[in-house]
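Minutes, methods subgroup
Present: GH (chair), OT, SY

1. OT presented the first of two proteins processed in the latest run. Sequence and structure tokens recorded below as shown on screen.
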Amino acid sequence: MPEPVSGGFTTALPPLAVQAERLIELGVPELAGIPAAGLRAFADRGGDDVLLAVHPDRIPASALAPLLRREGKPGFVVADMHDVDRFAPHQVELPDAPLYLAAGPDRGDRMSNWSPDEALPVLAEEGRTPLLLTEGIHWVLQQPAVLDRNHCFMTIGSRLVKANGTADARTPAIWISNGTGRDGRERRNAPKVGWCWWNNRHTWLGFASAAQRRA
């Protein structure tokens, strides 16, 4: 596999109370069927460098993606990923709760130009687990700067498992649209939820991961 590269996104996340207000401002509690007061109460526990996430069973990626903004343009899911919400947690254990925390999110720049198949075992050796697609979107909602042209990320904790038990060869990722093809020129520079092949490498995509999840 390629050698790891240095560098990465290191800015600390906002306090949990600030994250909660951001989600309330975006209308996430209504979409997820969670009272805003409950979200605020959950955030009162505090914590450093932790991401406040809503369980994907409560709000799927298709509902979260349009809340993203970059240069005034809303996020979107690529046209050929109509099944985006079937990409569920795979080999990642989530707390059995509507709200939970993902500690120490990392963009995984050091693994850029690796394939998902190469990155996954290394993350496991480091005691980290890949982010879900919904967690990745939550992260960008709270820290838009984490999505930087030529420094975006895959979310390989979400996989689509077929009826025969095998995983779909696609893996979700979040990056910035160039406004080409079916994206449309009007979407240039907009946040984009798309997919890549499991065995392919991309110089501009790292592998986002978390150190721990807890309710």
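2. SY then presented the second protein from the same run.
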Amino acid sequence: MPVARDIMTASAECIGAEDSVSDAARKLTEFGGGALPICGTDDKPKGVLTDRDIIVKALGKGRDPQQTKAVELAQGEAVTIGADDDADEIFATVARHKVRRLPVIDGHRLVAMVALAEVARALLSAYLRKCPGEYR
């Protein structure tokens, strides 16, 4: 079964906890993603900021995106997955926390992001390699 390090996006851009929501929006636009991990000065994930968070929690509530810090929009503790956790653990974590993307950590350091869609594709690919004649 594939593990997170086999599935994850090669690198993860992080937004600093003290960076503005405006900076986060620019970074999301630049990298074409829908979510950014929020990292502290220790490189540990403090949460995840999504494009939806920016719209609903900042803009929709009239908050100034240049004055609002990324960490102010994070909810609770950061939900992460270990680089060596397998696909079953990723699915369980996604389901338990009702998220679609997870920061991947190696030790306590952020190394990448993994999306639910990436896990599904990897499992399908592994299955098709295992049973090549069934669906062709």
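Chair's summary of item 2: The chain is about 35% helix and 20% strand.
Next meeting: continue with the remaining queue.
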